[in-house]
Each structure stands twice: as C-alpha cells, then as structure tokens.
Sequence to fold (439 residues):
Amino acid sequence: MKNVFYFLIFPGFLFTAILGLLLTWLDRKITARLQWRVGPPWHQPFLDFFKLLGKEIIIPEGGSVFVFFFAPVVGVTAVAVISTVLWLVLIAPAQSFNGDLIVVLYLSIIPALSVILGGFASGNPLASLGASREMKLMLSYELPFILSVFIPVILSGGLISLNGLIGYQKESGIFLRHISCMLAFMVSIICIQAKLTLVPFDSPEAETELASGGLVEYSGAALAIYKLTKAINFLCMPLFLTVIFLGGRIFLLPFIILVIIILKNTNPRIRIDQAAVFFWGPVTAVAAIAVFLAFLGF
Amino acid sequence: MSISSKAFTKSLWAFHVSVGSCNNCDIEMLDLLTPRFDVERFGIVLVGSVRHADLLLVTGIVNRKGAPRLKKVYEQASKPCLVVAIGVCACGQGIFRGGYNSYDPVDKVIPVDVYVPGCPPKPEAILLGINKAIEKVKSKK
Fold:
C-alpha cells in the first residue's frame, strides 16, 4: 500500500508530473525570452494537457490498434518508475535497493522505445520514418551514455546503488572534481539532449520535415500521455545526473536544466547521419578517454 | 463548461492549410509568431501534424486540386476543431471568382467559423478573427 502511494502520488507519478509540466513551461518561457517574446503563462502546459484529454481520439486505418494505445502507457509507466526510484533515493534512502543504477539505466530507454512502438503501429510513412530515426539515434547515444554513467561506479570502486554513490560522495566530496567525471558529465549532458530529443538531435520528431515524427497520428488523450511522458523525462534525466555526478545536491538541478534549455536554443538541428557520426566518433572517444582516466584514478 | 473545453479556448494549436494562395496571407500569418505579436502568450502554437490541431488557418482560393485535399485535411483533424478562413480569396475567392481554376470558396467545402477578409489581412485582423472564434466557442456553451 505504501509502495503504491510512493509510485502514484508522492514522490512518483503525480508529483513528478506536476513538476515536469512546470519545467516544460520554464523551457517554453526561457525559449520565448531568448527570442525576445513574452511566452506562455505558467499554467499553459496544464491547459494543453487538459485540452488534449477532451479531444477526439482518432484511430488510424491500417495501424495496429492494440500497440497504438499500449505504447504511450508503457512509456509513461517507465518514467513514473524512474522518478519514484530517483526521488526515493533522495527522500527515503532506506527504501532504495542495490543495483537501482542499472534499473534506471534500463528504464530510461523505454520512453524512446515507446515512441518507436507507437510510430510503427501508426501505419503512417512519416511516423515510420520518425520511429526509424529515433531507433538510429538511440543506437548512437546509448554507448557513450552508459560509458559515462559507469565512471562514478569505477571511481567509487564498484558501487552500483544510487544510495551508495550518494553516500560515497557525501564522505569524499562530489565526483565532479575528477577530470574523468568532468568529461563524463559533458558527454552525459549531450546524450541527455538526444534522449529527450531536444533540438540539436530532434530529427526523430522534426516538425518541419516529418510533421512531428512518431507522434504524427496521435491525438487526444494518447497524445496527452506522450506529452506527459516527455515532461516527466525532462525532469528525471537531469535528476539522474544530479544523483550520480553531484551527490544528490538538488539545488544544482536547475543549472543542469538551464544548460539543457540553452543548448536547445542555440543550436541548429543536425541530420540523423551527422548525429550518428557525432556520437560514435568524438563523443564515444571522449567517454572512452574518461573511462581510462577513471581507472587511473583521476 | 467543463475543464477541457475551458482549456480548449486557451490552448489552440494551429495548423496552416494553404489551398492555392499567393503566399501573402501566409507571410502575414507567420507574423503572428514573431516577437511583435507572439501568439504563444495566448497558448497558440503552430503544430506539424493536423491530428494535433484545434485551429485550421485556411488561406487561398480553393482550386480544383485543392478542394478534395482541404476536405481530407479537415476530416483528419480531431474534433472539436475551429476553422478560420484568412484573406479575401479564402472568404469568397476575391478577384479569382469565376476563374477556370477556382472551384468553390472555403465555406462550400468545409464549415468555416470566422472569416478574416483582406488582401492580405493585417496580423491584428487575424488575431481579432481568432479571438472571435474563441468567443464563439465560449458563447455556445
């Protein structure tokens, strides 16, 4: 019963959803201010969400109906679990378990997978193209992301629980003072940009060419769930970085989010092949150097 | 008035349908997104897919190739969906009335909520038109 409360209300689904939607507003507001616009009011993401709930849901002809509706639910469940695990480590460390770092790593792939599933189930060529791009992007960023996430594990001598990592950083200072961790932090911020499909790597849902990619056929409540998934993920991924690199110092979270938003607003979109070359080339190389340095103890 | 229909008036996602326009109205419409007018203040954003749209901004004379496509696009939008005809061409075909390639004005093909005449209409006029569409939704309920 207590676990259900943790998962559904605080600190899991509901709490993170509200915070995530507020962050979406922050993103839109900062974007607007950087373009010398005024931007939407703070409750805009909530209005969007409730509006979408009241709209007609269209089931595309020629698509797979079950997968079409199943995919968004999978995505939102996964991010809700991630948020529960991450917040519980910060709020009630006794509730966390050994190996939750790996659980979070696995679950963080699922939102992208849900877009892929939904895109292929739509039976729309644009959605299929978006899904296939999402898949290519996933294959490109996963390797450097996992390499960079395992650097704190190497530095702490093989701790694979988030709670253990936080405890270790409380005793011996945050990991970010190591050179290897600085490199890893840079790499993981770039990877997160791709995980959230934000602008330099938003070719899977490029609005101008693919008409929002894998979500082309979604409307009404299903689309609302996708938007919610994205909003929650927008909070969870920076939170994950805060836990593993900054020792759970939650007041540093806004800075990571600010960096992500500014990166988003100051970059053009790159093609999917350029993204793959970028991730498999320089980014993986930097991550590999960081792993090497970490083994040497720097 | 339920929550979702209240939210509907404050978060209209616009989709741009051009059925044979000369691009003038389209340029004026894009002005709405610039810092000077900034419709995101009112929750209006341009979306890429018609499935997400709440507001169809239709421009241009509806020519013979355009008419069936306009009808299709309207049917693809998830309802409730408002339609605003922008420019004299969309409202009543303007100087192209009776031309060999003009088919029917927009309101003969799909139901239109608000007409914004002008060649091209000013961005302020388009804003007023969208506002009138919102008022229409509010007064209905």
